[in-house]
Specification:
Strands 1, 2, 3, 4, 5 and 6 form a six-stranded antiparallel β-sheet that branches. The chain has about 170 residues and is of the alpha+beta class.
């Protein structure tokens, strides 16, 4: 059994944990057959409804931007419907637990800021507004990256722990 997090498509619904005892629990959570979307930098797999785009499920802004920011080649990704997030699969193909820092970032309050610099090695600059939500910080960081190909972007917890891999 693994504990995952549901990222609802509706921003009005909070992210929450779910107990996943078997693969059928993933199917039930996303409302159909599942497709895996790996995000190696975060150490997670997102499970989405395989027919979500065909069935015109609602856009999942939070899951989409988590994917876009942490997997730059996926900048055109558009995830829809409710999404289940678990740790990457192990050698037997079984899902693992979520990394603790990501779990905290998704479910617990914290203050985050975006840092930017030009890719030529210039100093890091703090963006003027800190955010109290990790996912909203990721969304802002992804938008900045998409707006300018010369910017390098990272996320920092205001408590001072900067993550080189842009993790919470």
């Amino acid at each position: 059994m693994v504990q995952g997090i549901i990222i609802p498509a509706s921003d009005a619904r909070d992210m929450h944990t779910i107990e996943l005892e078997e693969v059928g629990d993933n199917h039930k959570a996303v409302g159909g057959w599942i497709e895996a979307v790996d995000i190696p930098d975060l150490g997670v797999t997102m499970y989405v409804n395989e027919e979500g785009l065909i069935r015109d499920l609602p856009y999942n802004r939070r899951a989409t931007f988590l994917c876009r920011f942490h997997v730059p080649p996926a900048r055109d990704a558009r995830l829809v419907g409710d999404v289940v997030v678990v740790g990457l699969t192990d050698d037997e193909g079984e899902s693992t637990e979520l990394p603790k820092d990501l779990r905290q970032g998704l479910l617990e309050p914290g203050i985050y800021r975006v840092l930017t610099r030009e890719r030529v090695g210039s100093p890091w600059r703090e963006e003027p507004i800190d955010r109290d939500d990790y996912v909203e910080t990721v969304i802002w960081a992804a938008i900045l990256e998409e707006m300018s190909s010369i910017l390098e972007v990272q996320i920092e917890r205001v408590d001072g722990s900067t993550d080189e891999n842009n993790r919470p």
